[in-house]
Task: structure prediction
Amino acid sequence: MAVYNPKSLKAEEFINHEEILETLEYAEKNKNNMALIDEILEKAKPRRNGGILSCKGLSHREASVLLACEDPVKVKQMYELAEEIKLEFYGNRIVLFAPLYLSNYCVNGCLYCPYHLKNKTIPRKKLTQEEIRAEVIALQDMGHKRLAIEAGEDPVNNPIEYILDSIKTIYGIHHKNGAIRRVNVNIAATTVEEYRMLKEAEIGTYILFQETYDKKGYEELHPTGPKHNYAYHTEAMDRAMDGGIDDVGLGVLFGLEKYKYEFAGLLMHAEHLEAVHGVGPHTISVPRVKRADDIDPDMFDNGIDDDTFTKIIACIRIAVPYTGMIISTRESEEVRKKALAMGISQISGGSRTSVGGYTEEERPHDTEQFDVSDSRTLDDVIEWLIELGYIPSFCTACYRAGRTGDRFMSLCKTGQIQNCCHPNALMTLTEYMMDYASPKVKESGIKLINEELLAIPDEKVRAVAKEHIDAIMNSDRRDFRF
Ligand code: SAM
Result:
């Protein structure tokens, strides 16, 4: 039997089944232990020491107790704490991105994914470099600066060379004032050598969803293809980090297996990365299984309701305060609104999940990876964020200034975010307002930018930010950053 060891490089030791079962038992036994819950909430509170803001975070055991607790007063306190942490570390900024589907060719047999090899009804499509150009121009014309590229696993149709060529194409396109400044990559688990190539191609975050941490369930849900190998998939982030990628994004596909098990596994994965590589995950995504071609989400027994989903987000926020959290257009406007308050720091907007979808006038459904619940345009999403009191941000500065991995974390920890991320958000939002916004959104956006400029604490930074914002408003100069 494998023994739990967060420092081990073996999947079954750092995501240890027995440790998860014991954690769930401990959480169940203590879910009404109010003294312990108070102690856990107290430990997780943000603290200031000599101007430096810090949060201890929680272990998977402690966080699992919070998740198991159903006491309404304590749950309310958890939500308040999640909001407090969110505001302290991320302010009211929300970073925007869009997925770009390159190819839906896939050799795997994932039971929940429409790209699975046996699906004969979905039209297969792989974008040429020319088609990628057209998609990227359409995305730039919406105002996007940050993409997540997506592809099925197929060594013949989507080899690493294709992915690398596509990244080069994307970074090379500058249409009008547009540019894609950060390309995150969501492709199947691969070798250290290929991760090194991705790093050299200057990707942002390498994203790979675990789908489920439950090994038995994992093997059943991935009956065929290379993705069947649980250990190879679970150990992928270690290989990515060995290949030099220090921003990695974790995620669980909620709905497949039991959420409490997944939650403990996810946090154990984060603890493992911290223990071995000295830096936790850059982001955590929280997708839920959706309807898609040949996929009925009701086939899976573990769907979670919106309240449970919100609670999971709040508990992740409390447990790993320095990790960004992402929610996609799989979720509706209403769910996204709740999730934003509880800890989400990045959302997609105006997304099309079909291969080649951005160049079509009407949203195409035939090659879609999943049904989109939030189908608003990017401009609508920006308007909505502003109305809710958020600052939409297109910032990519950290990654471009080399502030990745632990250097990004130390920016969070030293409380410099208000003097760095805040002005960067305002400058990139000004770019959006001048180049892409509708007149109505532009008006509310400029008003917000002028108000928020005053909230930059450092006088010098404030003056420089103002100068840059004036330059963006009055000339074609772009891409300023702190
Ligand atoms: N092929 C890559 C891999 O193997 O990890 C990743 C690309 S896939 C396009 C991105 C993610 O979409 C998957 O990791 C999975 O979590 C999610 N996904 C697949 N089918 C889905 C569905 N029916 N509803 C919601 N999300 C889904």
In short: DSSP finds 20 helices and eleven strands in the chain. The longest strand covers residues 93-103.
